[in-house]
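Hi C.,

You asked whether I'd gotten around to modeling the 195-residue construct. I have! Everything is below, sequence then structure, no commentary in between.
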Amino acid sequence: MQFNPEIYKIKTNNISPKQGRVLIAEPFLQGSYFNRAIIFLANYDETGTVGFILNKEVDYPVTELWDEFPNYKNKFHLGGPVGIDSLYYLHTLGELIPNSQHIIGDLYWGGDFESLKQLVDDGKVKPNQIRLFLGYSGWEPGQLEEELKDNSWLVSDIPQNLVMEPKNNLWLQMVKKVGGKYVVWENFPKNPSFN
C-alpha cells in the first residue's frame, strides 16, 4: 500500500494567526528549520510576521558565539533562517528592558541590548525569564496567509509557561493539545520512507 500524505493534511485552519499564537508544522514539512517546528508569533500585522522556533535547541553554549553573556548558562535556540548572524530574545522582564515590544500577557521581545546584558551580568535574570534565539522566522505581508492556504501550518494558542520553559517533545505536546483529527500526527514517522 502506497503512502498518501493527503489524508494527514490540514483541511482547515479554524484559528487565525495573531501575536502570541503558534504555528505547528505539519509532520511532512521538510527542511532543517521547520521540520516539526513550533513557531511562536512575536509580531503579526500589516508589515509582516516575525516568529521564533521554540523547539530547536542549539547544542553549544551561547558564550561560544557571543562573549557579551559570560554568566549566561542556559542553552539557546535556533529561531529561524532569517538573520542567523544575530541574537534575538523573548523575555518576561517588561519595562526593565527599555524599548521592548509587548506580545501578550507578560511576554515581550527585543529591547535595549545593553540593559539586558547588564541585568544578566548582575544576576537579576532568572533562567525562565529570557530565551535567546539565533535568527528568526519571518514572512512578508501576505506570505504566511498563502502558506496557511497551502496547509503547511496549524495555528494554535499556547500557554505562556511553554513559551518560556518548553518541555521535551513540544511538537507532540502541542499536537495533543489541538487534538481532534490531528492526533494521527502523533505517530507519523519523521521519515515515512523508513516505515
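If it helps when you're writing up: The chain has four helices and nine strands.

Thanks,
B.
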